[in-house]
Each structure stands twice: as C-alpha cells, then as structure tokens.
Amino acid sequence: MNATQNNRLLYQLIFIVCVGVPYINNYELTFAVWLIALLATVQLKYSVSFLKYVLPFVVILLVGGFSMFSFDNDIYGIIRDITYLLKPIIGMIVGYQLCKNVNHKAISTVIYGGLVIAIIHLTIIFLSAVKYRILNIHVLREYGGYFSDYEIYVLIILLFHKQFQLQFIKRTLWLYIFLLGFSSALYVSRTNFIQFFIFFIALKGYLSVNKKTIAVLGSIILTTVIGYSIIYNLHFSRNGSGLDAFFYKIKNAPIEAFKTKIDQDDYEDFNDNYRSFENIKTVKQVTAEGWFAIVFGKGLGSSVDVGRRMLTNDGTFVRHEAILHNTYMTVFLKSGLIGVLCLLYSMYVLTKNKKSPIPKVNQINLLLFATGVFLILENWVLLGLFLKTESKAVLIGFLICYKEFLIKQHQLETVTNE
C-alpha cells in the first residue's frame, strides 16, 4: 500500500468517525471531534457553489450575535448557542475537506460508514433483547437510538446501486441492504420512514411534474389518507410495546406539532403534543418583546420559559429551554424572521441543482434535492442540521465536494479526448 492509499484510508476513517460520533449523544464530544477534523484537514480554497450552502447558517449565527446585545443573556448560554449554531457550518466544511482527500472512493466511504453504524446498532439491540431481556420498544430505542438519518442515505444508495455505478457482487450487495434495512427498521422512527419514502420517490424521479408522477403521487396520497383514517379510528396504547406503540405514534404524528390548544393539566394531552406547546410559548414570548425581537430574534443565549421543569432525554430537568424541538422556532428565537428566511433559503439551495450530462452527478443532485425536501418536514419536528445526534451536515458537504470532483474529472476527460 503506497503513501497515497494510506492517506486516503486515514481520511476515510476520519469521515466514519465524524459521522459516527453523534450517535454517542454527547455534543461536547461531537463538537470536539468535528473541530479537530476541521483543523486537521483545513484548506484555503472552497468553491463558490459550496459557500452558497454554508452562507445561510453563517448569517443565522451572525444575526443571533448581533441581537444578543439588546437582551440580558448569560455568558454560558451565549457560548452554548455559538457551538450549536456552528454545528452545520463545521459539519459541511469537514465533509467537504475530507472528500477532497478521498475523491473517487467517496461513495464506498459513505457506504462503509453506514455499515459500521448499522452493525453497532444491531449489536446493541441484540444484546439488549437477548442478554438483558429488554423487549419494550421505548426502552430498546433508549438504548439503541431513536433514529438514524445517515443509514437511510446509505440504504437508498444501495437500493439504487445501478444509478450510482456500484461494483459490489450481488451477494455482498444484498447483505449490505439487509443489514442497513433491518437496522433502520429497528429504530421504529416515523421520521426515518418519511425520509425513506421521500428519498425513494425522489430517486425514482417521481418528484418531477408530469402525468406519470401526478398519477403515482396521487395514488400514494390517497393510500396514505385511507391508511391513516383506519389507524386513527383504532385504539392503540401510548405505553404499549412493539407495533402497538409504533401505531400510536403514527396516529398522533399529524397532530403533535400543529395543535393550537393544549390542556396543560391533562398529562397525556400535554406530553403527546409537547412540540406544539413549545411553539406556542416561543411565539408568545418573542412577539411580546416587540418588533426588534420579531425581526432579529432575542439573540444568542436566549431561552423559552415553558413554565415548569421538564425532563430531557439527557436525564436533566430544564424549565428555560434554549434549544427547542422545532428548528424554525429555535432559529426564530435566536435570529428572528431574518434567521427563518435564511433557514428556508438553505433548503431551497439544496433543491436547486443544474442537470448534468454525468449520470452519477444527477443522482447526487437527486439526493441533495430529497434532502432539501426532507428538511422542510424534519425542521418542524426535530432540529434538522442543528440536532446534536445527526451527521447530515458532514454528508452534505461530502456529497457537494464529490459532485464537484466528478464534474472536474469529466471536463478533464473531455479536453483530453478532444
């Protein structure tokens, strides 16, 4: 193995570590690993097209920094928010820089990263179920993780292996698909199922407007409405196990983040619709500060008083929430309407990609397009690229760089042939 291969292997390992470390659910560790990776691979040259993806998140951070001087926010909260708002910026730069050193091995690197994550997840689930006799779906998710966006990306790439020109033998390919598919299903995540659906129809070409796609999407929507109507009229237990709990979550999903009236004294209503409760509180408290807060937000270090101490996934009790479930509301709190517009623009940029004569570039464009569409929904119920346990930012930067590499390679080959 020569020096070039050794260097490439090192960067592949760094990439796998960077996309895997958020699953540990320790943001300080994730931030440290990404920052070290950024400094270790730092470059002085970035394409204008790549900076276009990063710019909206830079503006969100800067606006939050500007507006904080108009409010009495504590220094700890300011530092914490800086690190959280830096996450998508650092992640995309790290992914971009690592791909510069991997080049034509980019897709295989993405796949092996997903396999490592899937195998670790399956091992945790197996040990929890067999050794410790844990069969309750809520407890299994607590041990194994609540969702895995990254594994869905890899599963989709494997399912569309011909379009991505993968060279795996059939037996290996189907083994990888089984591992990724089984692992993804065991998260029992509504968000991941929606992500898979969006990505699958996007790469099938069903999100472009024509008679065929209208017929296909119409059939899917009709089936979904009928299916949900059946589920809505059946009784499922919120504390049940297995499919019972999963269908309860599906039944509650369309209501959970959009409900406008919540009975705070009703335990089930309050907990099942807590995302809506957060949204209502955020809008009331920001608008109460006047036009400046509405336009520019309450700045870095700001928080929402939810009126009671709430137990978090980290096992701590918090009354003043600095980071909400909803990205739009979190950005509105920190950077106002300007920040929300920047967030919307960031998703728009992901969906706007020029058609290329290079088939693989078009597939990457479809992945980025599907990511932009998916983020519209994910930002409402989760935290999108700001979520501390997600690694999409690294993958987005990686794919953008790989796309640029393929285009440059094609241009060089065209010049050589001429």
Keywords for this entry:
two-stranded antiparallel sheet, 418 residues, mainly alpha
Description:
- The protein is mainly alpha-helical and 418 residues long.
- Helix content is 69%, strand content 3%.
- It has a two-stranded antiparallel sheet.
- A hairpin with a 5-residue loop joins strand 1 and strand 2 (317-321).
- Helix 1 (3-20) crosses helix 5, helix 2 crosses helix 4 (75-100) and helix 7 runs parallel beside helix 9 (190-203).
In short, what is this structure?
The protein is mostly helical and 418 residues long.
Structural class: mainly alpha
- Chain-averaged pLDDT: 84
Give the biggest beta sheet: 2 strands, antiparallel
Q: State the share of residues found in helices, binned by percent.
A: 55-70%
Topology:
Layout (H helix, E strand, L loop, with lengths): L2 H18 L6 H14 L7 H20 L7 H26 L5 H26 L5 H8 L4 H11 L10 H17 L3 H14 L7 H22 L10 H14 L10 H6 L1 H14 L3 H6 L7 E8 L5 E5 L5 H25 L7 H23 L10 H26 L1
Antiparallel strand pairs: 1-2
